[in-house]
Structure formats: C-alpha cells, structure tokens
Fold this sequence. Notes:
Blueprint: H1 9-28, H2 30-45, H3 50-86, H4 88-99
Amino acid sequence: MYKGRGSIIFPYFYTMKRFFRKIWPWLRNKYVLTISIFAIWMFFFDQNNMVDRMGMSAEIRQLEDDREYYQEQIQKDSARLNELTTNKENLEKYAREQFLMKKKNEDVFVVIEVKE
C-alpha cells in the first residue's frame, strides 16, 4: 500500500531506485560484468575460495598455538624425566606422590581436600 511521500518506506525505495539508475550503465558493460562474475566465482565457488582460505588460516593459527604449547610441555617433561633418571630420591618421591606407592611396612593415607 502506497502512503505517499510521508511514508517511512518511500525514501528507501527512492534511494534504491536512484542507486540502480546510477549503477545500471556499469552493469550493462560486458567487461565489468565479466570481472564481477569472475570475482564472485573466485570468492565463493572456486576450489581455493576466500571463505575456505579464511577458515584454513584460522585453523593454521590454532595449530601453531597448539604446537607452541606442546613444545613447552615437551621441554618441561624432558626436564622432569632427566631429573627422575638422574636422582633416585626424586624417583622414589615421584612414585610415592603420583602412584601412591609404599614400602612393605608403611600405611598410606590419602587426604582429599574439598574445594568450595
């Protein structure tokens, strides 16, 4: 329903109409049309499209962050392994704490702290 120039909808259609009047000669140009179709094809439909590339680059960043984290963990674990293999006291302490190992005449009490 057309309500006249005072309508809220009318300025939107008026500006769209003016926009298409200005752009229509450009769209009729075969070179602009060809380049536009090519750009749309490359951005959305090609095997190496931009949407997939952006997703892949985000995945690459995530994998590089994971790589740094795991390299730090490897360094920490290597230092811990070196410490355990060189010192017998540290090995016994580690076994008692982590695996609750004990000697024959000992009792082990496990204390669990409840965090609130």
